[in-house]
Amino acid sequence: MSHSETTLEPIAPDDAVDLYLTDRRAELASQTLDSYAYKLSHFTEWCESEGIGNLNELTGRRLLAFKQHRAQDLAPVSLKAQLDTLRSFVRFCESIDAVEQDLHNKVLSPSLNQGDRERDVLVDKEQAERVLTYLARFKFASMHHTLLSVLWRCGVRSGTIRAFDVQDYDRENARLRAVHREGTPLKNKENGERLIALSSDTCQVLNDYVDHTRDDVVDDDGRQPLFTTQFGRVSRSTIRATCYKWTHPCQYNGGQCPHGKEMDSCQALTTPNKAPSTCPSARSPHAWRRGAITHHLTEDVPVEVVSDRMNVSPDVLEAHYDRRSEEVKVEQRRGYLEGL
């Protein structure tokens, strides 16, 4: 036997995680500790499924197998966050003689490219309100104004925007119905179908858009799309271009560019599809959705309500969409605890 094998002390994965979290409790915020516990729960569940009851059996090859297992379900940004937490945990396990020394160096965390990093980008409340205020003043109830209002107020996906038909807007009850149909599928199919409550302000925009601004066209299936251009149902590329265009600061702040560009020659304006790489302020439809979800949570809308409204599970919401700072979260918790 090698020296490392003779000195290792048996311990179950979940017991080691408990020791790790207890050891970190004094130095970490409770929210961070909860996040570590959540990320490591996937590792202990995987160990159980693989029959690993003793961390002494952990090897570099098994760590790679866990990485590949999680890579099937996670975006690169989330996978990196989970593996970085695992590496810290494995380093702790080395200190208590639970695994071989230097095993943490065999936790291969992925490198991120610019596209992966953009997954954390969002439209914040200030930017969204400035865009919508400008559109309400100068392009009220235009297709762009209405589409972005629904994106921000409802936090829906691009596919859901495309799926809405005029009949899905219920004026009397102030709500939109998301329906999975052939030709305009929802991401989660029938499980994505739901009623979405609307504010009176959003209804006012929708009413004027449907009555006066909407291009009165039908699609190839004879349906009346809610969001249209003169060519028919709004396309995904049009939705993207709309989101990129109206998050350029020069569009809503009097033509002034904070990045030192001239509007007449700016590639982000002349070639909208290049907006993500040419304008640092440009934001995609998914950034609008992520921002809307974060805004709802910041305004103390319960996670369960946001989950149902935006059609995203609480686990995925926490991992991919909730971008509240720790300071915001702790102050929100304080509000619930005062008086107890």
Summed up:
The chain has 340 residues and is mainly alpha-helical. 54% of the residues lie in helices and 4% in strands. β1 (169-170) and β2 (175-178) form a beta hairpin.
Q: How is the topology of this model organized?
A:
Layout: H1 3-7, H2 13-24, H3 30-49, H4 60-71, H5 76-95, H6 114-117, H7 125-138, H8 143-154, H9 158-163, E1 169-170, E2 175-178, E3 194-197, H10 200-213, E4 228-229, E5 232-233, H11 236-246, H12 249-252, H13 267-270, H14 275-278, H15 285-298, H16 303-310, H17 314-321, H18 326-337
Antiparallel strand pairs: 1-2, 2-3, 4-5
Helix pairs in contact: 2-3, 3-5, 7-8, 8-10, 8-15
Distance between the termini: 57 Å
Major sheet characteristics: 3 strands, antiparallel
Alpha plus pi helix count: 18
What is the fold-level CATH name, i.e. the topology of the largest domain? hpI Integrase, Chain A
What is the H/E order?
HHHHHHHHHEEEHEEHHHHHHHH
The top-level CATH class of the largest domain is Mainly Alpha
Specify the CATH architecture of the largest domain: Orthogonal Bundle
Could you name the CATH homologous superfamily of the largest domain?
A: Intergrase catalytic core
Protein name: Tyrosine-type recombinase/integrase
InterPro entries: CB (IPR044068), DNA_brk_join_enz (IPR011010), Integrase-like_cat_sf (IPR013762), Integrase_catalytic (IPR002104), Integrase_recombinase_N (IPR010998), Integrase_SAM-like_N (IPR004107), Tyrosine_recombinase_XerCD (IPR050090)
Keywords: DNA integration, DNA recombination, DNA-binding
Pfam families: Phage_int_SAM_1, Phage_integrase
